[in-house]
Amino acid sequence: MIHDNLIHVQNNINHAIENANRPKGAASLIAVSKTKPVSMLMEAYEAGIRDFGENKVQELCEKYEQMPKDIRWHMIGHLQRNKVKYLIGKAVLIHSVDSLRLAEEINKEAQKQNTCVDILIEVNAAEEDSKFGVSLQEAPSLVEAVAKLPCIRIKGLMTIAPYTENPEENRKYFRQLKELSVDITRKNVDNVSMDILSMGMTGDYEVAISEGATYVRVGTGIFGERNYG
Ligand SMILES: *Cc1c(COP(=O)(O)O)cnc(C)c1O
Question: What's the CATH number where 96 sits?
């Protein structure tokens, strides 16, 4: 089932890239495996997946220990400062940086462990109260402040669009995130690139790709519904 789902999702991604006249491989898939057992992740691994997304530090670390070492783990969930230290060296990319204090903590822990950490700035484009992330307006100044930290590299932006039955309703948010990335690129801030746009989930990844997503984060479409029991 997972194997078939992956083929289906990857086909949709390829078509969306083609329809948008973007280069082959312009958007890649992160398999969002939160709450799912390692056995299911291994099925995806065996079908070729190497990018996995988790939203809890402890779960990411446990799966990291149990799974092959060529996996790229993406931290996509809200991150508490006291958990940062466990992630360093395990997550290749932290998608969910939304405050200077959190960035400072990541920088401090990276420094301690003699490394640098790649991050994205999380933007709450739709300004939903239930979601983390800075507003579109606040993002540029946060980028400039975080860019001064020596052990952090800003690689782009991430957004979680509202839940909707009609993915077209989220097109405006994806477009705004892309425009923001272009505006920030124009400022030419040292230590900042805007190569990555992490946007689009099971319900709306094709629309996100047509607006410039470089990573889509798909969970349900690969592993089925989550059961939080
Ligand atoms: C759970 C989650 C996803 C995947 O959502 P689906 O709708 O299951 O594809 C993507 N991004 C984030 C940040 C998530 O927490």
Answer: 3.20.20.10
pLDDT in tens, 169-224: 999 999 999 999 999 999 999 999 999 999 999 999 999 999 999 999 999 999 99
- Give the distance (Å) from ligand 1 centre to CA of residue 202: 7
Probe ligand 1: pick from 9, 30, 32, 157, max atoms within 8 Å of CB? 32
From CA 89, how far away is CA 26, in angstroms rounded? 26
Residue 168 in domain: yes
What is the CA(10)–ligand 1 centre distance, in A? 16
User: In sequence order, which residues have a C-beta less than 8 Å from that of residue 148 and are 6 or more positions away?
Assistant: 191
Structure tokens at 84: 């940062």
Residue 228 lies in a domain: no
Position 12 in a domain: yes
What total number of domains does the chain contain?
1
229 within domain boundaries:
no
Range of the structural domain that residue 12 is part of: 2-223
Q: Tell me the CA distances in angstroms from 149 to 96, 190, 203, one per residue in order.
A: 17, 11, 35
**pTM higher than 0.85:** yes
